[in-house]
Fold this protein.
Amino acid sequence: MVFDYWPDEIAEPIVREIDVVLNHASAGFLTMGIGRALFFASSGVEAVRLALNRAYRDNDARSLLKQRVQSVVFVLVGATLIFCD
């Protein structure tokens, strides 16, 4: 709908590229994208956890793997709640 207001010389190449990305993208790229998004979002949760631990001078004795798994679960639950609203 936005592209209807743009001149054809500008809108046509953009629409063509969007069509290529949406209709011809492989599942491997989608999987890598989801994995990276999940990793970076859980890293944000880890950063907040680290900041709170330092602010309250708390020592978290859990393993890094357990902390990361918990952060991934927080991200997945949060995303589910946002998209299933």
